[in-house]
Amino acid sequence: MSKSKSHKSESKHVLRETVETLGLSLLLAFGIRTFVAEARYIPSGSMLPTLEINDRLIIEKLGYDFGSPSHGDIVVFNPPESLNQKDAFIKRVIGLPGDKVEVKNGQVYINDEPQQESYIAAKPDYQYGPVTVPPDEYLVLGDNRNESFDSHYWGFVRKDHLIGRAVFRFWPPNRLGELD
To answer: What string of DSSP letters covers 110-153?
Structure first.
């Protein structure tokens, strides 16, 4: 075999390996982002003080395929169709299916029990409910209760609208860590 044929064959082999590696990497990246986890940023102050504008988060997407949200989970979801919004929202789960939720006198009550909410910016200055959360739906509120466009304005979030649970903040570095 001549030197030039050997060199061409080797070049084709390297090119093929490069294309295969890039293709597999793209396929894996797409699969992970679509089904397992994805990065999101915070565009508004509705979750202050827990999440600040421009925080970057990892959203875990598999958990709700096998289970359901819990009280206090921070969830990313597609808003109800009636809002004509394309961008996903991020809020905290307050009411689970079957829960009776009420906001009165600056306090959230779930099933007539006052909730201890150390994570909120300020006590809510509105009255809401009582409402009972329907099956397969959730009541979500922003931690910045008085400045959040959330369930107390537009209603419940269907389970099939949930994208995932916010689990980890990776930016900014001085606030790096798991989310409670």
So the answer is: ETTEEP--TT-SS---S-EEEEEPPTTEEEEE-SSGGG--SHHH
pLDDT by residue (tens digit) across 53-93? 999 999 998 888 888 899 999 999 999 988 888 899 999 99
13, 85: one domain: no
DSSP code, position 3:
H
Q: Which domain holds residue 59?
A: 38-178
Question: How far does Cα 174 stand from its chain's mean position?
Answer: 21
Distance CA 78, CA 169 (A): 20
Which residue shows structure tokens 């001085």? 174
114 with 174, same domain: the answer is: yes
Q: Given the structure tokens 């909730």, which residue do they identify?
A: 115
Residue 78, φ and ψ in degrees, nearest 5: -80, 130
| 76, burial (CB in 10 Å: exposed 0-12, middle 13-18, buried 19+) | buried
Question: How many domains, in total, are found in the chain?
Answer: 2
Task: Note whether 60 and 14 are same-domain residues.
Answer: no
Catalogue the active-site residues: 46, 91
If you search the block for the tokens 């689990």, which residue do you land on? Answer: 167
Angle among Cα 81, 108, 49 to the nearest 5 degrees reads 75
Q: Contact at 8 Å (CB) between 54 and 41?
A: yes
Claim to verify: residue 23 and residue 85 sit in the same structural domain:
no
